[in-house]
Structure formats: structure tokens, C-alpha cells
Write a structure and sequence with these properties.
The complex is a heterodimer.
Chain A lengths: L4 E5 L1 E6 L5 E6 L1 E8 L2 E2 L2 E6 L7 E3 H6 L10 E6 L2 E14 L2 E10 L6 E2 L10 E5 L4 E5 L1
Parallel strand pairs in A: 6-11, 7-10
Antiparallel strand pairs in A: 1-13, 2-3, 4-5, 4-6, 4-9, 8-9, 9-10, 12-13
Chain B lengths: L16 E5 L5 E5 L2 H8 L6 E5 L10
Antiparallel strand pairs in B: 1-2, 1-3
Chain lengths: 141, 62
């Protein structure tokens, strides 16, 4: 089976410097859809975060596809810098292009961040290459 | 980081949820929270991309 490759350009976000000037800061975001019980989410753009152990999404995104977030008794504590939040892990599918892949995501009512982490996203691919100077990344699967 | 891009479509939407065109060139809907945004777009999700625009005055280190 031949290897597939996706090349994704970083998204420019406004960033205000200490002096008050606004510049663009480029970040690696990936667009995906979630699928659970036959229901498919709108396309969601999520930060590809090599520093995150796992994928973390706001609970409402899980609820969009019909997941009853708190029914999973596997409560997870997710730690960031100087903070801890509670999340609930669920198995579901995500679409990478037209390819449907099984994954699991931690959903929390305490976050607005949408993070694609190493377990649950990076491990779906054979290779991920970040090209910072070109503002793009490549996914091989 | 690059120089200021005054055409960045996200500039008016700091710290909001947005629904963008699939090429991310234009914001079609925005809201302070995701649930409200989802209600706005519920019947028109096919070519939209949902995203949280981060605050502009900080860098992100999760």
C-alpha cells in the first residue's frame, strides 16, 4: 500500500508584542471531523501540539457528535503550566482527509483549547515533519 | 513571527470562536462561546471550519 502525504500550511494568528505592535505568529493547525455513533461533527481546526501527551478538546465538541461526556467514569487529570483540569476519555473516529481513523480524545468542560497530542493524533501517522521556516507541516500515513 | 498583516481576517475576533470559510480567508460567524456559534451554523456546516481564536497578547505554552 502506498504512503499518503498531506502538506498543511501554518495559520497566521495576530500577536501583539510588548510594544503594542501586532504581528502574525504562525501555528500548525489541522482540520478534522469527528465521528461517533454515525454522527459527524463540523470541521474543527485544532492545534497540532507535540508537547501534549494526549489530545484534549472542549466537552461541547464531543457533545456535538452525541457523546455523553460524563458517562465515561475514566476521569483524567490533565496538567498544564500551573493548572490541572478534569477530562473524560472517549473512543471515537476522526477523519484525516477522507480516511477514517480510530482515536481517543480527552474532553473537558474546563478548556477552550483544541489540542492534537502525541497519543491519539501523532501516533496515527508514520511520520510528521514540521518545517518552521516554510510555515508548513507534513503528515505521512 | 512576520510583520503585521493588516488583512488577517482574525483581527476582530480575539478570544472568540469563529466559523471560517474552508480556505480560512473569511470569518462568516463568530461568538464568545462555542455553543452559541454552533447554534448559528447548525444548518450550514458543510464548508465551514470552526476554530478558537486565541488571545493576541500572549504566547501559548501548554
Amino acid at each position: 500500500m502506498s504512503q499518503k502525504k498531506l502538506v498543511i500550511e501554518y495559520i497566521p494568528f495576530p500577536y501583539q508584542t510588548a510594544s503594542g505592535r501586532t504581528q502574525d505568529i504562525f501555528k500548525p493547525y489541522f482540520d478534522l471531523k469527528l465521528s461517533y455513533g454515525g454522527k459527524i461533527s463540523p470541521t474543527i481546526s485544532a492545534l497540532v501540539d507535540s508537547g501534549a501527551d494526549r489530545s484534549l478538546f472542549p466537552a461541547y465538541i464531543g457533545e456535538m457528535v452525541g457523546i455523553k461526556i460524563k458517562t465515561n467514569k475514566t476521569k483524567i487529570t490533565v496538567g498544564g503550566i500551573n493548572s490541572k483540569i478534569t477530562a473524560y476519555r472517549h473512543k471515537l473516529y476522526c477523519y484525516v482527509g477522507t480516511t477514517k481513523l480510530s482515536t481517543d480524545i480527552d474532553f473537558s468542560y474546563d478548556t477552550n483549547s483544541i489540542l492534537l497530542g502525541r497519543k491519539g493524533f501523532f501516533n496515527l501517522f508514520s511520520k510528521i515533519v514540521f518545517q518552521e521556516k516554510k510555515h508548513l507541516f507534513e503528515l505521512y500515513y | 513571527m512576520n510583520k503585521q498583516n493588516k488583512k488577517n481576517p482574525l483581527i476582530p475576533y480575539e478570544d472568540q470562536w469563529v466559523a471560517l470559510t474552508s480556505n480560512k480567508k473569511k470569518v462568516l460567524f463568530a461568538s464568545k462561546n462555542l455553543k452559541t456559534l454552533h447554534k448559528k451554523i447548525e444548518n450550514d456546516t458543510s464548508n465551514l471550519v470552526l476554530m478558537k481564536v486565541p488571545p493576541f497578547n500572549m504566547v501559548f505554552a501548554p
